[in-house]
Every structure is written in C-alpha cells, then in structure tokens.
Amino acid sequence: MYLYMEITFLTPLDESVFHSLETMLSKIKIKPKSLTNNRRGFPERHRAITFGITTGRFDGITGLSHSSRKYPHIHEEILKIGKIICGGVGFDFKSIHLNNNVICPKHKDMKNVGKSVLVSFGDYSGANVVIEDDIYDAKYNPIMFDGSKLEHWNTDNLIGNKYSLVFF
C-alpha cells in the first residue's frame, strides 16, 4: 500500500478472487437505471445496483438494500471480497455500489462524503479511472480516495464486460 495525492493504492488482488462473483453476476440481469433514477451527467440507462445498508431515496428508511435482499448470495460474496480488500487497512464500509459497463463522466460524489474503495474486474480492457487528470488501472487493483474531494471519471474506451465495486 502506498499514498499519492490523497489516493491510497491497496494490495492488488488475484483475478481468482472475483471468479465466483463474476459467475453469479452473469446469471442475473442488472437493469438499466431509469431516467428518473439517473445521476446527472451519467449515461442514460446505465447499469448499476447497490448492496448493503442504504437509505431509501423517497421514504428515507435505512436498512438492507433491495438488491441485498433479492440476491443474498451475491451480497455475501461481495462482503467477502470487501473484507479481503478493506479489512487489512481498517476501512469500514456499509454500502457497495456495483456498476456494469458504466463510463462515468467527470464528477465529485456529493452525497458520498469520505473515502471509498474502488476495484474493477471482468473480461475487459480500457475504461480506466481518471482521478484529478491522472489515469489509473483499477482492474484487480483497489484504489481508496475521497470522491467528494477529488474529481474522477472513466476513459471512454471500454472493450468487453466490466464490473466495478465501490465500497463506501
């Protein structure tokens, strides 16, 4: 692990850590977000779901996310991976955002204050993460940074099927 400009590069993982999760994800359909759920500036109908503890956007109720209840086996596998990645650095997370083939535009995380850990996996190339104009490869390489302070996005050159986990 080493630090650079408020970015912490965690221990790289072997791709085998993600095999079970990738197999599970290949058996479900991650529905595109509707236009009413879309974050400003993100591609229309991007594919993403959230696991762990969330607060309902409309009812304000905090609890286990819909995706965690619908796919408990996937939730457990993501938690297992999260403990491998985050446990060694003492990073506690409550929620995990899963993106599928999402190319994020330049943004800062307005509601997600504090550090997050990002890692990508899958059969893909390209779509690297850019943090404050520096390009990083998060494929099996977890990166911790405060997305509310550092502007970040993805390069627009994705080939293949990419998943990203954001622990926060």
Mean pLDDT figure: 91
Helix content class? 10-25%
Strands side by side in the biggest sheet: 1-2-9-6-11-5-3-4
Extended strand count:
11
Give me the secondary-structure topology:
Blueprint: E1 2-4, E2 7-9, H1 19-26, E3 47-55, E4 62-64, H2 66-70, H3 72-86, E5 95-100, E6 115-125, E7 129-131, E8 134-136, E9 143-146, E10 152-154, E11 159-167
Antiparallel strand pairs: 1-2, 2-9, 3-4, 3-5, 5-11, 6-9, 6-11, 7-8, 7-10
Helix pairs in contact: 1-3
Task: Characterize the structure shown.
The protein starts with a strand and ends with a strand. The protein is globular and about 35 Å long. The strands form two sheets. Strands 1-2-9-6-11-5-3-4 form an eight-stranded antiparallel sheet. A three-stranded antiparallel sheet has the order 8-7-10, with no helix packed on it. Strand 3 and strand 4 (62-64) form a beta hairpin. The mean pLDDT is 91. 28% of the residues are buried. It has three helices and eleven strands; from the N terminus they run E-E-H-E-E-H-H-E-E-E-E-E-E-E. Helix 1 runs antiparallel to helix 3 (72-86). With 168 residues, the protein is of the alpha+beta class.
